[in-house]
Amino acid sequence: MANTVWAFSKIAIKDFPLLAAISSEAIRKMQDCGPQEMANIAWSYAALALIDHPLRHAISSEAMTKMTDFDAQHLANTPWSWAALVL
User: What pTM, to 2 d.p., does this model score?
Assistant: First the structure.
């Protein structure tokens, strides 16, 4: 999931049905995501300028439980993603 949404963000394609499906699945499986996946998903949606409040909430909630696993890059990219969307 994280790699797919990252790839779409890198080529700036907003396939809304696909992104909605990825969001839904990511929310459902967020507990299985590590810091890298969470940061990549957050960054990718921000890079596409897409605000997805349920996804943001799921990432934020799960990140709080895994904060000690985040390295400096994850700690920088995840909040940058929210700030980039002016949330």
Answer: 0.88
